Task: inverse folding
């Protein structure tokens, strides 16, 4: 599998639980939709602005896709004719995290 670098925006509480549990099964929205919403490097700034505008601090994690289960990562359109975003079907293991940073502005 080719490595794809993907990003996920978490609340500090989600990040703390992720580190404690060793895996992340998704936010309430992710669980409702049946997959974990993620972004590519050029997409996460728009996601921060659109969905997390008034929510700070946040944690931006950078992940290596090769640590996901085979077939878990799919690039799918957010709507017909829309941009393709990484969707993760299954959990994210903590080993997949390359780095994280606090977003507070």
Result:
């Amino acid at each position: 599998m080719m490595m794809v670098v993907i990003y996920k925006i978490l609340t500090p509480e989600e990040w703390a639980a992720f580190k404690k549990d060793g895996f992340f099964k998704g936010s309430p929205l992710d669980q409702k939709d049946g997959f974990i919403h993620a972004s590519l490097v050029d997409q996460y700034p728009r996601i921060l602005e659109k969905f997390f505008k008034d929510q700070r601090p946040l944690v931006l994690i950078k992940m290596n896709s090769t640590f996901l289960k085979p077939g878990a990562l799919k690039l799918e359109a957010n709507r017909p004719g829309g941009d393709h975003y990484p969707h993760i079907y299954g959990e994210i293991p903590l080993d997949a995290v390359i780095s994280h940073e606090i977003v507070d502005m």
Q: What stands out?
A: Residues 12-21 form the longest helix (10 residues). The beta strands are 5-10, 23-24, 36-37, 58-64, 73-77, 84-88, 92-93, 97-103. The chain has a mean pLDDT of 93. The helical segments are 12-21, 28-33, 44-51.
